Amino acid sequence: VSARAAAYAEPMTHRMFVAANPTDDVAAALERFVEPRRQDGSTLRWVHWGQWHLTLAFFGTVPGRRVDDLGDLLDEVALNTDPVELTVGRAGAFPSPYAAHALWLGVGDRGDGSLEALARRCRTAGSRVGATVQGGGFVGHLTVARSGPPVEATRWLRVLDAFAPLTWRVGEIALVESRLGVGVGGSARHTEVRTFPL
């Protein structure tokens, strides 16, 4: 393949995010909790267990030629960050419980600001390579269900609040590419591009 053909084959931009994945024991406990709800007949689309993640930074577009540079910057962030102790629990919804498109369980640190600081450094890394950084103020969460049309979700938030909080230690972060519509059931397919030990 010529260099010119290879250049055309490479996407001009990539849809990517930086994530921290829950440990296997936390993911298993969450799956045991969510599984009975998958068959409830509601319009909610429950997130497949393999897609649960804590998004630290979301990049709507990353220039294809800068993906490696982004990885190098994230490696630098990780090398200068200690592992973070997190707790998952406390239900919430976006944009509101009365017209929700996403239901989630909140994720927070021990009150020392380490999680928000890590998210801020990841977003800064994206900005430095010309990525389109999306999202407003950082809200740590694991999305567990989505809905196309907005739903009144206060009942579901009471259900999710019954999940007993669990802790996990984040020892690495990952740069993930997201391709819409090609995953399980037409969901996004997430592919880890590179991981970075803290």
- The overall average pLDDT, rounded, is 90
Distance between the termini: 38 Å
Which oligomerization state do the chains in this entry correspond to? single chain
Q: How much of the residues is beta strand, in percent?
A: 35-45%
Structural class: alpha+beta
Characterize the main sheet. 5 strands, antiparallel
Instruction: Note the overall shape.
Output: globular
Instruction: Spell the H/E element sequence.
Output: HEHEEHEEHEEHEEE
Low-confidence stretches: 1-9
- The number of helices is 5
- State the share of residues found in helices, binned by percent: 25-40%
Strand order of the largest sheet: 6-3-1-9-10
Q: How many β-strands, per DSSP?
A: 10
- Rg, please? 18 Å
Would you give an account of this structure?
The chain is α+β, with helices and mostly antiparallel strands and 198 residues long. It is 27% helix and 38% strand. The chain has five helices and ten strands, in the order αβαββαββαββαβββ. The protein has helices at 3-9, 24-34, 67-79, 114-128, 154-160, and strands spanning 13-20, 45-46, 54-63, 84-94, 100-108, 132-134, 141-151, 166-170, 172-179, 189-197. The strands form two sheets. It has a five-stranded antiparallel beta sheet with strand order 6-3-1-9-10. A five-stranded antiparallel beta sheet has the order 2-7-5-4-8. It is globular. The model is unreliable at 1-9 (pLDDT under 50).
